[in-house]
Fold these 4 entries.
Entry 1:
Amino acid sequence: MPAHHHRHQHGVMSGWIVRPYDLVVGGVLMRGTYRRIAEHLTTGIVSGGRVLDVGTGPGRLVEAISRRRDDLQVIGIDPSSDMITRARRRTRTLPNVQVRMASAEDLPFEEESVDAVVSSLSSHHWADRVVALDEQARVLRPGGRLWIVDLASHLPDGIRDEVHDAGLRITDADKEVLGAAHRRLVLITARKPLAAA
Ligand SMILES: C[S@@+](CC[C@H](N)C(=O)[O-])C[C@H]1O[C@@H](n2cnc3c(N)ncnc32)[C@H](O)[C@@H]1O
C-alpha cells in the first residue's frame, strides 16, 4: 500500500471511534499481546520503577502492566481527552496507575526518570517522530528500555534510524514477545546506553 494511504490515520483519536476501537482492537485483537508485553517488558525492573506508555489510548496496556506488577509506577499519556477519560475509567481502581494528558513530543517528566518507555500502535500517529523519540530518550534512565510495537503495515519508514539518532541502541532482542501476532506486528526494542558516548 502506498504510504499516503495511511495519512488519515495520523493524529489524535477522539469521538465515536474510541469505544469500538477499544472493544475490538484492545479487547480482542491485542489482548494477548498486551499480556505478553506486560510480562516481558517488566522483567528486571526494580520495585518502585516507572513504566511509561506513550499514546496509551483506552489504557489496556497500562492496566495489563499494573496487574502484572503492582509494585511499579505505571503511567499512560495520550493527547486525546476522550482516550484519557476512557483510560482513567478503566484504571481508577489501580492505585499504581496514572493517566495524563500529554503528547509524545512533550513529555511532562524529568530527565532520566523512567525505566521503560513503551508504545503500542501509536508511533505512526505521532506528529513529529524525531522530537517524540528525543523526548522518550530524554526521560529514560541510562540502561532503560524503549519498546515500540506497531502494525507492520503502518510502521513508519526510517523509524529504526530515528531511534538510533535519538541516542538509543537498537537491541531487537525480544521478538518472541509478539508470539503468533509477529506477522502483523513489529516490535522494535532499544536501550539507552549506560554512559554517554
Ligand atoms: C491506534 S491508538 C493506540 C492506543 C493504544 N496504545 C493501543 O494499543 O490500543 C493511537 C493513539 O495514539 C494517540 N496519539 C496521537 N498522536 C499522538 C502524539 N503526538 N503523542 C502521543 N500519542 C498520540 C492517539 O490519540 C491514540 O490514542
Entry 2:
Amino acid sequence: MEKRQALASFGALSQETRLEIVRMLVIAGPTGMHAGAIAEKIGTSPSNISFHLKELDRAGLIGQQRESRSIIYSAKYDALSDLVRFLMEDCCAGHPKICKPAATVTACGGPSNKESAIGDPEGTTSLSLQSISGNDADLRIALTAAALPTDDLTEDGRHFFRIARGTDTLGFGGYELHDGDALLRSLVILPDHRGKGLGDLATRLLLESAHSAGARRAYLLTTSAASFFERLGFEKIDRSAAPTAILQTRQATSICPASAALLAKPLTPGADANVGKKSEDLNA
Ligand SMILES: CC(C)(COP(=O)(O)OP(=O)(O)OC[C@H]1O[C@@H](n2cnc3c(N)ncnc32)[C@H](O)[C@@H]1OP(=O)(O)O)[C@@H](O)C(=O)NCCC(=O)NCCS
C-alpha cells in the first residue's frame, strides 16, 4: 500500500462513528449489514450513518452490494489487511515473535476463508459460521442425507454457512433475505453431533447473522422439527399471516409440502447472541 492510500484510510478511520462502523462490519463477516441495522446498533440516524458509510466507501475500506431493495455493506478485508501490513511491514528484524499477532490478524477473515464467529459473546465455544456457496458439495450431501430440499441451492439471494468448530464441520444452515424478512432454511447438524445443543446454538448464530444483514423477522417451514424451533421462540402462524415475499419463495411455493408448518419469530438486536448452551458439550 502506498503512503497516500494509507493516509486516506487512516483519515477515514479517524472519527468515532466510522471506526465503530468498520469494527462492526469486520465482526459481521462477509454477509455484511444493512445500513438500518448499523444505525440501530450505533444509535444514530440513518442519514448520519449514510454520510459515514459514503466516507468509508470512498476510502476503499468497505464495499456495498444491492440485495432486493436494500444495500448491504461489508468490510473490505483485503484493504484492512493491507493497512495493518503497511504499519507492520519490515517489523522487528530479529524479533519475529513480536510481529506474530499482527501477521495472524492480516491472515484471518475476509472473503478468502469467509469465516464469521458470531453470537458467542463469552467465547466459551469456537463454533462459527463460515460462508459457503450453494454449490458446496458437502452442503448438498448433508441436506440430501437429512431429506432436506436441494433443488434451489444455487439460486440468487441464498446465504449458506458451514457450522464449524475449528476445522471440524458440525453441520450446515442458511437463510434467504426478503425485504427485511429472513427465511431460515437448510439447517442440519451432522448425525454424530446431534443431541448436544448444537442445533440450538447454530440456529441462534444464523438468526444473529440474519439480523445483522437487516432482517427483522424470521420465518421457516418445517415438516419434522416445529417443536425444536418453538423452543427457540418461533411460533406457528397461518400462511395468510406471512408476507407475500415469504409466501412466494421456492420453499413455500414448490419445495416444501403444503402440510409443512410455517413458523415466525421477531428478531431483536442481541436477543439470540446470549446463546443457551450445554457448556460441557460446547467446550468439548
Ligand atoms: C433438528 C436438528 C437441527 C437439531 O439439532 P441438534 O443439535 O440435535 O439439537 P439440539 O441438541 O440443539 O436439541 C435441542 C433440543 O431440541 C430437541 N430436538 C432436537 N431435534 C428435534 C426435532 N427434530 N424435533 C423436536 N425437538 C427436537 C432436543 O431433544 C433438545 O431438547 P432438550 O434440550 O429438551 O433435550 C437436527 O436433529 C437435524 O439436523 N435434523 C435433520 C435436519 C432437520 O430436521 N432440520 C430442521 C428442519 S429445517
Entry 3:
Amino acid sequence: MEFHVPNTVSFHLSLLILVAWSSVQASHSSSLSSSAAETISRFQHYLQINTSQPTPNYYQASDFLVSQAKSSSLQSQAIEFVRGKPFVLIKWPGTNPHLPSILLYSHTDVVPSEIDKWKYDPFSAHIDDNGNIYARGSQDMKCVGMQYLEAVRRLKASGLQPLRSIYLAFSPDEEIGGQDGAAKFAESEVFKSLNIGVVLDEGMASADENYRIFYAERSARWLVIKAIGQPGHGSRLYDNSAAENMMKSLESIRRFRASQFDMIKAGLMAEGEVISVNMAYSTAGTPSPTGFVMNLQPSEAEVGFDIRVPPTADLESLERRIADEWAPASRNMTFRFLAKAPVHDEFGNPFTTKTDSSNPWWGLLQDAIQRAGGKLHEPGIFPASTDSRYFRRLGLPAFGFSPMANTPILLHDHNEFLNQEVYLKGITMYESIIKAYASYVENEGNRASTGDL
Ligand SMILES: [Zn+2]
C-alpha cells in the first residue's frame, strides 16, 4: 500500500489563507472563536458535497477528504475496491507498528432528501440563529467523519506521538447495504495489513444530556409471505381464500408486533432489544383500468415485512412462529427471506462487543468520554444496521458512538441538523478517546513496546 507524504509548506500557506478567509466568513457564528468558526466551515464544506444515494458524488468527497488529510500532513489514499466508489484511508502512523491499530470508521454517503419538505436546502449546510447546521448527513454521519479528522488534527498539532497507528476510513455505500464499501474493505488484503484492534463507528443522537453507545445491532430479516387460494365472487363467504388466510396471518403478526412494542412502551426493553416487525408492502387483487376489480376475491396475496432481530433473540422460535402461525402450509401459504443477515458465528456466539472488564477498549472509551466531560447512557443495541456488523463478524470489537447529546434523533428525517456547539464538543470527546486508544498498552504489549522504543 502506498501512502504519499504531502507538502507541508503549501499546507501552512493555505492554512494562513483559510484563517484570513474564515474570519471574514464567521459573521453568523460570532460567538465562536476564529479557529472554531474555521472548524465549522470545514464541516459545512463536507456537508455541501452531494453524496446522496442513488447518485453520490464520491469523487468530490474523496478529493475533499484527501485534501483535509494533506492539510494535516497525514498519509492518505483513495482505494477503489469497486470502480467509481473510492474508499478513503488516512493514516497517522504509530511509533510501535507491532501493536494493533485503531480504526475510526465512517461512511461518506447519505440518504436521499425530499427537498421541498426541508426548511433549507439539504446541501446548503445553512446555520440558523441558534447555531443549528441544517444538512443531510449532519447527523448521519459526516459529523463523525469530520470530528475524527479535527481531533487528529489537534492532537497532531499538540505534539502527540501515537503509539498505535490510527486509521481513518471513509467508506461508500453504507446507506445501500455496504456491499461495495465496508464488506469489500473488511475482506481485503489492505484490511488485513492494517492489523486493527478496535473499531469506532456511528451511533445515534440522544435527546437528553447523556451520550449513547452501541455494542451490537439488530439484524435485518426481510420476510415475504404469500397466500394462494380459490378465486371467487366478491359476494361469497367461503373458507381458505388467499385474502382470508392472509388476514389471519396479519392478525397474528399484528399481535406479535404489539407484544414487542408493549415492552418498549412499558419501559422494560429498549428499542434494540425487541424484535420489530413492520409491513413494507402488500400486493393482492386483480387490476382494472380504474384500480382493482372490486367484486372478485383474488387467488394470490403477498406481503413483505422488515423484521429486525437483536443478537440475543431466539431465532428458532421466531422461525417456528413464521412457519406455524404466519405462513402455515396448512393454509396454502409459503414464505421466503429476501435478506437474512447472520446474528452469530458458527459456534453460536452473537456478534456483540463486550462491555465489561474483559474488553479493555470499553473501559478506555468510557473513561475517555467521562474525562472530557461527557456522560453516558448504559450501552445499548443499535436498532438498525450499521457497517459495524462487517467488523464484529470478524471478531473485532466495534463501538457505535456519535457524540450528539441534547439533540433530536433526525437521521434519515427531514430537516436533519446538528448544533455547532454539540459538534465542537464532540471533537473534544474524540481527542480524549483517540489519545487514550493511541497510547494504550496491554501488559504484554507494554514489554514489547519498551523494547521497540
Ligand atoms: Zn449512517
Entry 4:
Amino acid sequence: MITLHGFASSNYYNLVKHVLLYKNLPFRENLIYSGSEELLAISPVGKVPAITTAEGFSLSESSVICDFIEETYPTTSLYPENTSERAVVRQIMKIAELYFELPCRRFIPYVFSGTDIPKSLKTEVRQVLARGITALNRLCQFSPWIAGEQFTMADIYVYYVNTIVNTFGASQLEWDVQAEIPGMKPWHDSISQLDITQQVETDRQANMPEFIEKVKAQIEAASPK
Ligand SMILES: N[C@@H](CCC(=O)N[C@@H](CS)C(=O)NCC(=O)O)C(=O)O
C-alpha cells in the first residue's frame, strides 16, 4: 500500500491525494510537516508531498509522483493514449506550475510573517502571471475538460494550482486571474463539485488550524529573541 506523507493544507499534497482517490487506490496518510528529519529521509528537499510504496521506495515532487502513480497503476488512465495529446497535458501542467503556482508562492513568506510585500515583487509576479494567462488561453480547451474530452492529470493539477492563484491573486494583487481565461471559472467550479474534491477540501479545512499553529511556532522560533 502507498503511504502519502504530508499535510492536508498543502495544495501539492492534495493533488496527489486526489489522483490516488480518483484511481481508487488503497493508501494511508502520514501527517508530517515540512522541515522534519523524518521527512528529509524520504523527500530530498524536505518538502511535502512524498510517497512511500510497500516495497520501501520513496519519491517526492508532486508531478513526478503523479506520473509514477499513473505508470504503476495505468487503469483509469489520467493521460490520453496519443503521445502528442499526452505531451500537451504535461505542457499545461508545467506552465501552470511555472507561471501560476511558483510566482504566487513568492508571496507566502511575507503573508505568513505579516510583512509588506515589496511593490517590485508584486510587479514581477504580475508579469509572470500574465505570461501564464496568455499560454493557458492558447492551450486550454474546457470542452468540457481542460485538455479536451478526456478528464486528465492536468484537470487535477491545475485545479489545485488555481486554489493558490485565486487566493493570492485576490488578496495581494486584487486580480481575478481566472477571469482572464474564458472557460476557466465554470471548469474550476465543476471540479470543485466532484465528490473527491469535496472530500479533499473537508480534510484541508480540518487540518488548517493545526497547520496555522505550526507556521506561527516556526516564525516564533526563527524570530530574534
Ligand atoms: N515542487 C514541489 C513543491 C512542494 C512544496 O513546495 N511543498 C510545500 C508545502 S505546500 C512545502 O513543503 N514547503 C516547505 C518548504 O518550502 O520548506 C512539488 O511539486 O511537490
